Amino acid sequence: MPSELKQYTMAEVESCDGKDGHLAWLVIRDNVYDVTRYLEEHPGSSELIEEWAGKDGTKPFEEFGHSSDALRTLRSLQIGVLEEQDQAKNRKARAAKSGIITDSTADEPKLKKRSKRRMFILCG
Ligand code: HEM
User: Fold this and answer.
1) How far are the Cα atoms of 13, 19, 39, 80, 107 from residue 51, in angstroms, in the given order?
2) Where are the domains of the chain?
3) Looking at ligand 1, which residue's alpha carbon is closest to its atom 16?
4) Residues 29, 71: contact at Cβ < 8 Å?
5) What topology does CATH give the domain 6-98?
6) Ligand 1 geometric centre to CA of 42 (Å)
7) DSSP class of residue 3?
8) pLDDT tens digit string along 76-113?
9) Are 11 and 83 in contact (CB under 8 A)?
C-alpha cells in the first residue's frame, strides 16, 4: 500500500459491485478495499461479501465481530480511502439507521443529550 492513499468517491465504489465481471470493492470504516480476489476465500461464503460489494459494509462486517486475522487480511486488500464528503454521507446514513442523532458540523455522531433542567415541585 503506497503511503499516499488514493481517494475514491462512493460513485466509483458503487460501480465496482462485483456484477457482470466488475471488480468487487467494499467500504469499511471509510477505507476502500478490493475484495475481488478474496471472495472465494471468505470463510463466511462469497455471497455474504458479494451482497455488500459496491457498498458501505461497515455495519455487517462489524456485526459479525471478525477476528484480528480477518482485520489483517482486510488491511492487505486496502486500495484507498473514501473522499471526505462521502465519508460524512455514509456516517450520517449509518447513524440514521442506528437511531443516533447527528450534529451536522460534528465529525462523529453524538447521542442527543438529555436536558439538564430539573423540575422543582414546591409543596405546602
Ligand atoms: C461485509 C461483509 C461481510 C460479512 C457479512 C461477513 C460475514 C462473515 C460471517 C457470517 C462469517 C462466519 C462464517 C462461519 O463461521 O461459518 C465470517 C467469517 C470470516 N470472515 Fe467475513 N464477512 C464480511 C466481510 C469480510 C471481509 C471483507 C473479510 C476479510 C477481508 C472477512 C474475513 C473473514 C474471516 C477471516 C472469517 C473467519 C472468522 C474470523 O477470522 O473472524 N470477512 N464472515
Assistant:
1) 14, 10, 11, 21, 28
2) 6-98
3) 44
4) no
5) Flavocytochrome B2; Chain A, domain 1 (3.10.120)
6) 6
7) S
8) 999 999 999 999 998 888 788 777 765 544 444 444 44
9) no
- Does the model's ipTM exceed the 0.90 cut? yes
Atom of ligand 1 nearest to the CA of 71: 29
Beta pairing partners, 26: 33
Which grid coordinates belong to 110?
A: 453524538
Which residue in this structure is represented by grid cell 449509518? Answer: 94
Residue 7, amino acid? Q
Considering only CA atoms, which residue is closest to atom 14 of ligand 1?
Answer: 44
Task: Determine whether the shortest distance from the Cβ of 24 to ligand 1 is under 6 A.
Answer: no
Task: Cell 463466511: give the residue.
Answer: 44
